């Protein structure tokens, strides 16, 4: 059984998020053809179906207020950040920018790039059919280059994460799960190592299992980008700029990936096991480094409920939905 009041049609023109059953299949699955969950995963079980339906209607009405809006800030940040990141290479090689400053700037831009790319993954920059659709693609492409991953790979695996959130074998990000914060930071590094069933190999296996033209293209583009990344580092080192290569790309990539994996994957989803229901896929938490420096992930649950709400508006959307979420059994005590 689902709490959705609109099984046959969707009156809203935005992604409604996961269903109210614990399958982790996402909002696009036809719930009429699914067996009900063996375990109640839809929040407060004391609420009857009709109360839950009314709450869901109210929730959607609130969500509709926070969808859309100007996204040019993300476009400017993506292209501006990419230009500054590229400029760090010659500026550092010429001695104009000190290596320590290049490291700080490049690491910040690496993390910030994922935030802008994240919006492109969900087509929030420009929808299909819009005249500026090309911009959505290029925001994604330039934003992910600092972590040496093509947009195609990032988008496919991220959407699979949404579709199968917290599923131990189908969620590409499940390998980030760790029992505590220290182990989580350690795993952000360990999961990138060769022959480890971590993020890199899990992403590759997901694309191989999908075996679609898009996933095959993503695998090829990943190989090309990785070769370009390694060739750049080798060429710079060969010509006497090994330190510059390290502070402009290699080390910012390592630090940036760890920051992204911790705050985007572990912090809002821990603990993961069995948490596949609509209101259980992510948590509301208070970050010690603040909302901005944690990539606005403190209210990541809102993103999973409504991926079309831009990242900078999830906190306001959460505060507006908070009374409803509390009635649905969500722990909102952190914020």
UniProtKB/TrEMBL annotation:
Entry keyword annotation includes ATP-binding: no
UniProt name for this protein: Beta-carotene hydroxylase
Keyword annotations of the record: Membrane, Transmembrane, Transmembrane helix
Ranges that cross the membrane: 71-91, 97-117, 227-251
One protein family per Pfam: FA_desaturase
Keyword Membrane: yes
A biological-process GO annotation: lipid metabolic process
Limits of the Fatty acid desaturase domain: 96-330
Region described as Disordered: spans on this chain: 1-44
Record's compositionally biased regions (Basic and acidic residues): 1-13
Top-level lineage group: Bacteria
Phylogenetic placement of the source organism: Bacteria, Pseudomonadati, Pseudomonadota, Alphaproteobacteria, Sphingomonadales
């Amino acid at each position: 059984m689902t709490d959705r009041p609109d099984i046959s049609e969707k009156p809203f023109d935005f992604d409604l998020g996961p269903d109210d059953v614990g399958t982790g299949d996402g909002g696009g699955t036809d719930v009429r053809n699914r067996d009900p969950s063996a375990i109640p995963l839809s929040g407060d079980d004391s609420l009857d179906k009709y109360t839950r339906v009314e709450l869901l209607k109210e929730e959607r009405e609130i969500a509709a207020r926070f969808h859309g809006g100007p996204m040019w800030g993300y476009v400017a940040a993506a292209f501006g950040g990419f230009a500054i990141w590229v400029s760090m290479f010659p500026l550092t090689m010429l001695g104009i920018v000190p290596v320590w400053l290049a490291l700080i700037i490049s690491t910040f831009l690496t993390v910030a790039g994922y935030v802008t790319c994240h919006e492109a993954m969900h087509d929030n920059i420009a929808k299909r059919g819009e005249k500026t659709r090309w911009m959505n693609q290029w925001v994604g492409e330039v934003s992910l280059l600092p972590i040496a991953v093509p947009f195609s790979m990032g988008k496919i695996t991220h959407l699979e994460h949404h579709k199968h959130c917290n599923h131990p074998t189908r969620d590409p990000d499940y390998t980030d799960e760790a029992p505590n914060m220290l182990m989580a930071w350690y795993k952000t590094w360990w999961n990138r190592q060769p022959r480890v069933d971590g993020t890199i190999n899990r992403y590759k296996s997901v694309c191989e299992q999908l075996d679609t033209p898009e996933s095959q293209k993503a695998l090829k583009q990943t190989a090309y980008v990785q070769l370009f990344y390694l060739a750049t580092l080798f060429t710079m080192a060969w010509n006497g700029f090994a330190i510059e290569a390290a502070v402009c790309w290699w080390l910012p990539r390592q630090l940036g990936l760890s920051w992204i994996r911790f705050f985007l994957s572990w912090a809002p989803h821990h603990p993961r096991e069995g948490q596949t229901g609509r209101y259980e896929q992510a948590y509301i938490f208070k970050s010690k480094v603040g909302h901005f420096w944690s990539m606005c992930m403190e209210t990541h649950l809102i993103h999973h409920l409504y991926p079309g709400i831009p990242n900078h508006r999830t906190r306001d959307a959460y505060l507006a939905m908070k009374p409803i979420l509390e009635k649905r059994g969500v722990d909102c005590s952190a914020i």
